[in-house]
Amino acid sequence: MTLHVAVIGSGPAGIYTAEALVKQSQEPVLVDVLERLPTPYGLVRYGVAPDHTSIKSIANYLRKVLELPEVRFLGGVTLGEHLTVEDLLGGYDAVVYCTGAMVDRKLGIPGEDLPGSVAATDFVNWYCGHPDVDPDRFTLDSSEVAVIGVGNVAVDVVRILAKTSDELRSTDVPHDVLERLEDSQVKAIHMVGRRGPEHAKFTLKELRELGELANADVCVRPEEAVVLGADFPRQVQGNIKVLQSWAAREPVGRPRRLDVRFWLRPVEILGTERVEGLRLERTRLSEEGRVVGTGEFETLPVGMVLRSVGYQSVPLPGVPFSEQSMTVPNEAGRVRDREYVAGWLKRGPTGVIGTNKSDAAETVRTLLADLGGRKRVGDGGVDALLAARGVRPITYDEWLAIEAAEAELARSLGRGERVKLVGLEAMLRACRP
Known about the structure:
The protein is α/β, with parallel strands linked by helices.
């Protein structure tokens, strides 16, 4: 007897879960992948920087999973709005939640709510064409910008800020966004970390890309690049070597400047009606290894602050959630009877895209061990329920129509392979003319 499973979320975690379910040999499984957006692939589409085409090519692998005969894509369906947990458990034998970590952590400092102080995820969603973000969200009218954080997301953000619009013209950046980037007034970008170079979270490949920017001088202060000790992992040693080489460079007068700063923590965002500056305190490590302030301060005259200090998940209606760990409590993926979780919502925002594959496999093993041989309780899906509520899901073929429209837009503009459509209305026009 066929097992019918709903997977909530069509990012890598959700699609890897669908793949693990249908490719196992224990028993036949049909999977419906439910997604609140009209488009699949999650952070691969809306989180990977547009100039990282090799990483974005992971979508080609995910596509093959969605094209398996046992897998069905249902876009435009939102848990808590169109369907409840009870609806899902009535229609399916099991439900797996895979909605990821969608928001940035806050800094918790005065002035953080001023206009011009925003989450890096908002900026990433903007240049990636996420339908939740208005293309007019950012004007880039400030000459100086601060990016708080020294991880890969922060690196992506500063790279996009530093590049010219011509360097991004062949990517899938929405055309309205490209025009905003072309009009950018940004001249100086400050990337700020609370700890030293040995604690930075970026990968070596991402870091080296900054040093190859044609439009920006990359600068590190020699005194902030000093590292005590040498017993570091190879990746960390590589980062330190690159950063110290930059500290020995002289600027050559490129149009923009990127200052990579260490041992500074934000203590206040200054301004009355909008961001006018960022006050920083010099830091050091205590004997216990904690970051502590030294009482030495400096102020950066920035007009925008982008925080990139980590992602966190948000609760799903009707699903258990831990405010402490910001995840769904689980045991090897099991949440409650017939409810499971995978991806960042399960373990927190750790690992790379590929980490979700082994994570999904663990959850699927748990699910099959629980449900194998049990009487089927789902009645075959939620199609009738959605129809009765006036909800018409986006099909996989309709998603392909959106893709085709983006390719046609790129051809008409003389830009690369595709240019993303922005907004739900434009996507619906493309797939339901």
